[in-house]
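Weekly modeling sync, notes
Attendees: S.R. (lead), two postdocs, one rotation student

Agenda item 3: backlog of single-chain predictions. S.R. asked that every request posted to the team notebook include the full sequence so nobody has to chase files. The rotation student volunteered to paste the first one in as an example of the format we agreed on. Action items at the bottom.

Example entry:
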Amino acid sequence: MPALKLTGMHGTTLRHCTCAAALVGLALALMPCVAPAQPAIPDSREQITLSFAPVVRRAAPAVVNIYTKKKIQQRAFSPLFDDPFFKRFFGDDFPFGGAPRERVQNSLGSGVVVRPDGVVVTNNHVIEGAEEITVILSDRREFEAEIVLADSQTDLAVLRIDPEGENLPALAFGDSDRLAVGDLVLAIGNPFGVGQTVTSGIVSALARTRVGVADYRSFIQTDAAINPGNSGGALVSMDGRLVGINTAIFSRNGGSLGIGFAVPSNMVRAIVDSAIEGRPLVRPWLGFDGRAVTADLADAMGMRRPIGVIVEDVYEDGPAEEAGLRPGDIIVSVAGQDVEDMQALRFRLATRRIGESIEMAVLRKKTEQRVQFKLIAPPEDPPRNEVLLEGSQPLAGARIANLSPALVDELKLTGQPRGVIVIGVVRRSQAARIGLRPGDILVEINGVDIQRVRDVTKIASSLPDSWRIAVRRGDRLLKVEVR
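Predicted structure, as returned to the notebook:
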């Protein structure tokens, strides 16, 4: 039989017979003769010093500072009258507050150059509402920036500056799906406005979906120190690539507690590609309702552990139906990546292009199957048919529309609601007096199920003497009667 080759510390190679008895005997014979291993004396500078300097030299020039200016309204008399104590009794019309005046508010954040021709990515909340945006490079040169794309759902924004033909230092994208808990990372930004700063840490967790700073949530959690001003800065892997955009921290006092969150680079890349190519930022349509598999549900279904999303309702003629998904199916992974809940599933799909197909692993009656899910844009079917209701009736002043997958996505609604939605209410109108709000879904009027806008206008035109209206608001069904 062949010998085993075992390589020990300091490169010592021992050759042993595969016979168990021979191994034991040889080990016993050598024990008195082998001296305890001694630490080797470093014989080079590289062995003495562990340094992140090469990674920082590569990445730091691509990290920029972002200054913004915007005008806000402030009372001229005294900031004392903005105290909640006064507002509680007088509201915003406190008589001694003086006339409002405009004040210029400055804010500071960070950004990353991702293309040598001047494309910069940062957080949406860094530039939101800004009237002037200035990007300052690591060599202190300043450039005015324009917004190419701003997306509140991912809290990302893409800016462009004009380097006048010069190629700027840019940070290449890494694959955030290749990150593992425990990997070393660097956070580079401008915390508290003190200047560019580098901190190190590890990846503490992946696919954090319960951080409520964006709609498409699957954050990288790190213990690298991230503080105010770091927003929009780079999370860098040890090969000097961008693996995340630092976005939020968990803090009780405004400083770092070792819990920071970054948007994964695969999502950042999708947003940047859309901005550069001038494509509308459209997320794939799920075409089904679902919820995360809980521990109780997993136990009832005989699963080893709770994982995945259970399909509850499939939209007719949608991509889920076309893929063959059925109510009761459990989606456990997308493109080989586990999904824990609906947020993780939506994130995985949102990093891909419309028109692609993606493989899903599905549990159906305890048997795993593979399905191809085609990514399509949410259709506006039925057409929204937006109408402002008028006349002498309780719904006058309500602006209503037919719900479609496109409108659901536009209004950032969860699930796949159907029917007629209130998208606006005129102040002091009759609809406002009975308590209607934007986002309410009209379910039933005078015993008639409401499916389309035409159902509402038909009832309103008949001028009934009394109205019995059922409205769905979130998870609640509200009823009102008007005579």
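Discussion: group reviewed the output briefly. Confidence is low (pLDDT under 50) at residues 1-34, 85-89.
Action items: rotation student to repeat for the remaining queue; S.R. to check formatting next week.
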